Amino acid sequence: MLKKKGNPLPPTLIVRLGKFVWTTLWHLMMSRLAPRNRSGEYIRPTSNFNSFIGTEAANPYQAAAGRYSLYVGLGCPWAHRTLVVRALKGLEEVISVFVASPSTNEGIWVFNSEQEGCRTLPELYQLAESGYQGRCTVPVLWDQQTKKIVNNESAEIIVMLNSEFNEFAHHPTLDLYPEELREKIDQWNEKIYHSVNNGVYRCGFAQTQEAYNQACEELFAVLDEIDAALSINRYLCGNGVTLADVRLFTTLFRFDVVYYGLFKCNRRRIQDYKHLGLYLRDLYQLPGVAGTCSLEDVKRDYYGNLFPLNPGGIIPSGPDVTSLLEPHGRESMNKQLNLQD
C-alpha cells in the first residue's frame, strides 16, 4: 500500500485558502459586472446614445410607422419599461421588437435570431458606430433607415413612445406624461430610480456591508413611503397611470421573484405590503401589460447568468405568479382606466 507523501493541508487552511481565492475572483468578476466606488457601492454607468425622435425639420429622426425597432432583453427591467409603454399606447404594429438573451459564457447579449447581419448586441453597436468602446446594453431604439442607434436610455425612450407616435397609435389619447403632472412624475421618478429601480441593484451588487446596509435602508424606506401614498391614490400621481407607475412596475414584478432572495432585499416581499401588492396586480392587469411579462426569462437571466451571485446557476422553480390575476379591488378608488379610444 502506497503511503501518502507529506502531511495533508489542515482543514482550516483549506477553508481560508478557498475563501481567499473565491473572494478575490468574486471582486474581479464584480468589477466588470458592477462598477463600484471606493466605499463598495454600485455605480450604474450612464447611457451613451441620447438622440430624440421629433418633428423639427433638422432632426434626422422623424416619427414613422415601421421605421424603428426596439432591441430588448425580456429579463431586463429597463428594457421591460419600453415594452409596457409600447403595449399601453398600442404601438405593436408601429415599432417592431427583437429579443436578445444574455450569454453566460460570452458575457454579452446575443440575438435570438440574426439582426442586421449581427449575431450579438456589440456587433449592432459597432454597426451603428464603428470603433465604439462603451457598454452595449438594452434597450436600444434602432432606426432601420439610417442603421443608427437613436437612444439606449430607457427613461428617454418611454417618453418618446408616449408622445411621438400618437398618429399611428391605437391609444393616442392616453398620455402617460401629462404636462400638469410632470413635476410630480419627475419627483417620483427621481426618488424611485435611486432607491428602488437602481436600489435593488445597489443591494445585490454591494461589495461591502456598509454599502449594502445603506442601500437596503433607502430601498425599504421608499417602499414604505410608496405604500402609504397608494393608500389614498390608485396610482402614484392620482387617478391615472403614468410613466412613474411604469418605471416602478418593472422592478416590482421582479422583486419577489429575484430581488428578495438573490439580491438580499429580504426584509419584506411586495405581496406583504398592504397596498403595494394590490397595486402590482392592478398594473399587471392593465390591457396588454401581462403579455410583456416573462417570468421564465426573468429567472433564467438573473439566476442563470449572474454567476458571481449564483455560482451554481440553479434556477428556482417558483413562485407562481398567477396570483397577479386575482382581483385587486383598486378600481373602486377612482373610475376604471379606459384605454378604448
Structural account:
The chain has a domain at 179-333: Glutathione S-transferase Yfyf (Class Pi), Chain A, domain 2. The protein has helices at 11-33, 77-89, 121-128, 154-163, 182-197, 199-204, 209-229, 243-259, 276-284, 295-303, and strands at residues 68-72, 96-102, 109-115, 118-120, 140-143, 148-151. It is globular. Helix content is 39%, strand content 9%. Strands 4-3-2-1-5-6 form a 6-stranded mixed β-sheet, sandwiched between helices. The chain is an alpha+beta fold and 341 residues long.
Can you tell me the CATH architecture of the domain at 179-333? Up-down Bundle
Structural class: alpha+beta
List the strand order in the largest sheet. 4-3-2-1-5-6
Shape: globular
Q: Profile the largest sheet.
A: 6 strands, mixed
Counted beta strands = 6
Distance between the termini: 86 Å
Q: Return Rg in Å.
A: 22 Å
Q: Determine the mean pLDDT.
A: 90
Low-confidence stretches: 336-341
Describe the secondary-structure layout.
Blueprint: H1 11-33, E1 68-72, H2 77-89, E2 96-102, E3 109-115, E4 118-120, H3 121-128, E5 140-143, E6 148-151, H4 154-163, H5 182-197, H6 199-204, H7 209-229, H8 243-259, H9 276-284, H10 295-303
Parallel strand pairs: 1-2
Antiparallel strand pairs: 1-5, 2-3, 3-4, 5-6
Helix pairs in contact: 2-4, 2-8, 5-7, 5-8
